[in-house]
């Protein structure tokens, strides 16, 4: 079996070979942490977007959409706190010249100890079988207790140091914990410095007129500044949501994990405006709803988990991540944040314009509280891709690579394959293609043996192959082959549409 790292490399290579994802400007040796989506990648990406949009906007009467500009008044980023606080603490190793996020080094250190604890518990569970009392074991086992104490001590020192912006103490902690550079193995660290993640550029033609503006690091602020425009024009009543899909940009310090951490990426965000005091109820509601959405994709539940935050962003009073088990480990896929009234209040203060809502039921005005759901489109793409990639050895001893992408997300839904390139079969296949192509993304191929064409469609993730053979000419029947089971069934050409539709329809 391939190691996780090897598997990750294979997925990246597969994504390139099969037209899903290319490194940006590859002929110039690429641009770090920037990627282009190829012919099949763009289809998968669009299908994920559509699936999210439908389930958030179309299926919720009280959620509407928005497409705000990437450029936004620079004061927005001052008000939101991004100019002053959207920083990551960075540290360099002087021997390897590699740069790291200092907070991640410490968090990885704690994670390793926590993993040790879990291993200890699992081992004991296996040893004692049914009589195992896990709670008691955790509370009394000396090694578990010692490790728990270690983690608690690091947390107690680390998070307050970050809150105080005491970077000298963060460095001291890294040294005291004996954290080494994974590349050089040395402890020869620079000081820790804060690094603002926003990209800036200039707007205006002449130097004197030009003003510094930022490329948005989140789409959410475009929603906040349009809160009243949307509420009034669409006659929304609290609670209501505004959803948006769009590009975001971050000058990430560590950006070497393919689509996981990019400098240009896409977010699918929804801000839900609620009455002050009701935010925790809605926060719990959206945590559950969003997990349900992930599970509805058909990916097994054990691939997901919640991670409730201890250290909160400057705008939040509660936050949780939905983490996914990528080949690089369990990592954040989506954030659910209770953002209080921080953003609207800050915009009210900086703009001098009221950001209030008049609640007719309560007969009072207030600045609404906000619960946000924010999911990375590229990370969802990576989750789907890595979950789908499989190498299989078949009964006849041959091997195949298959992308078991859920049918409703698959870039190509159906391949139309005439068995041979003669005797009227291509013409008949074109007829079948014409009857399907307005409803489904189809792919026509007549080159190569049928077996090879099946393999190519498996590797591309196409859930159905329709083969047109001599019998089709006689009785209008075709074979439909299922990508995952490889089983074939004979059906009438008139049934194809219904059979495919059933599998690819969006779940409600
Ligand atoms: N508006 C809140 C916000 O932006 P975040 O946790 O910083 O919160 C939300 O980002 C989501 O955006 C993340 O859960 C992740 O899926 C995605 N994301 C963030 N940074 C990313 C990056 N550099 N590359 C790809 N996706 C990223």
Structure description:
- This protein is of the alpha+beta class and 508 residues long.
- The protein folds into three domains: 245 residues, BirA Bifunctional Protein, domain 2 (2-Layer Sandwich); 110 residues, no CATH class; 104 residues, 3-Layer(aba) Sandwich (Rossmann fold).
- The chain contains 17 helices and 23 strands.
- The strands form seven sheets. A seven-stranded mixed β-sheet has the order 3-9-10-16-13-12-11. A five-stranded mixed β-sheet has the order 20-19-21-22-23, sandwiched between helices.
- β7 and β8 form a beta hairpin.
- α7 packs antiparallel against α8.
- It binds glycyl-adenosine-5'-phosphate.
- The site of glycyl-adenosine-5'-phosphate has 19 residues, from β10, β13, β16 and α13.
Radius of gyration: 26 Å
Beta-strand percent range: 15-25%
What's the CATH H-level homologous superfamily of the largest domain?
Bira Bifunctional Protein, Domain 2
Main beta-sheet strand count, sense and barrel state: 7 strands, mixed
Roughly what is the average pLDDT, rounded to an integer?
Answer: 94
| Percent helix | 25-40%
Helical/strand content category? alpha+beta
Given this structure, which CATH class of the largest domain is correct?
Alpha Beta
Number of domains: 3
């Amino acid at each position: 079996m391939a190691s996780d790292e090897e598997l990750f490399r294979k997925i990246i290579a597969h994504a390139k070979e099969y037209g899903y994802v290319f490194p940006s400007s590859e002929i110039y040796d690429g641009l770090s942490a920037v990627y282009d989506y190829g012919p099949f990648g763009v289809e998968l990406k669009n299908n994920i977007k559509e699936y999210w949009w439908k389930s958030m906007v179309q299926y919720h009467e009280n959620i509407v959409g928005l497409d705000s500009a990437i450029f936004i008044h620079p004061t927005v980023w001052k008000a939101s706190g991004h100019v002053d606080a959207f920083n990551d603490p960075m540290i360099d190793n002087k021997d390897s010249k590699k740069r790291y996020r200092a907070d991640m080094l410490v968090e990885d250190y704690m994670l390793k100890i926590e993993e040790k604890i879990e291993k200890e518990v699992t081992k004991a569970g296996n040893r004692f079988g049914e009589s195992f009392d896990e709670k008691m074991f955790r509370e009394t086992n000396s090694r578990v207790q010692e490790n728990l104490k270690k983690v608690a001590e690091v947390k107690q020192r680390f998070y307050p140091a970050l809150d105080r912006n005491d970077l000298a103490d963060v460095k001291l902690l890294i040294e005291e914990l004996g954290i080494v550079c994974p590349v050089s193995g040395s402890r020869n660290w620079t000081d820790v410095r804060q690094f603002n993640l926003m990209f800036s550029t200039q707007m205006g033609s002449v130097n004197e007129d030009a003003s510094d503006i930022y490329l948005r690091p989140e789409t959410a602020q475009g929603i906040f500044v349009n809160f009243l425009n949307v509420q009034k024009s669409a006659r929304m009543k609290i609670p209501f949501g505004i959803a948006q899909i769009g590009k975001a940009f971050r000058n990430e310090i560590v950006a070497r994990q393919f689509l996981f951490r990019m400098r240009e990426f896409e977010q699918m965000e929804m801000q839900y405006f609620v009455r002050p005091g009701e935010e925790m109820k809605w926060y719990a509601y959206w945590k559950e709803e969003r997990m349900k959405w992930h599970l509805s994709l058909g990916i097994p539940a054990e691939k997901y988990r919640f991670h409730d935050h201890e250290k909160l962003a400057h705008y939040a009073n509660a936050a949780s991540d939905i983490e996914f088990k990528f080949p690089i480990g369990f990592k954040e896929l989506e954030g659910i944040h209770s953002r209080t009234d921080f953003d609207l209040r800050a915009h009210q203060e900086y703009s001098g314009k009221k950001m209030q809502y008049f609640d007719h039921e309560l007969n009072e005005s207030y600045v609404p509280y906000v619960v946000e759901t924010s999911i990375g489109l590229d990370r969802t793409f990576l989750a789907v891709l890595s979950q789908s990639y499989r190498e299989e050895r078949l009964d006849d001893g041959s091997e195949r690579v298959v992308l078991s992408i859920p049918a409703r997300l698959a870039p190509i839904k159906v391949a139309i394959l005439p068995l041979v390139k003669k005797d009227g079969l291509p013409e008949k296949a074109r007829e079948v293609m014409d009857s399907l192509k307005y409803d489904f993304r189809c792919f026509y191929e007549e080159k190569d043996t049928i077996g090879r064409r099946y393999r190519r469609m498996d590797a591309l993730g196409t859930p159905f192959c329709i083969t047109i053979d001599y019998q089709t000419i006689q009785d209008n029947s075709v074979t439909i082959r299922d990508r995952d089971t490889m089983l074939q069934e004979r059906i009438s050409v008139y049934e194809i549409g219904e059979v495919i539709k059933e599998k690819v329809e969006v779940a409600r």
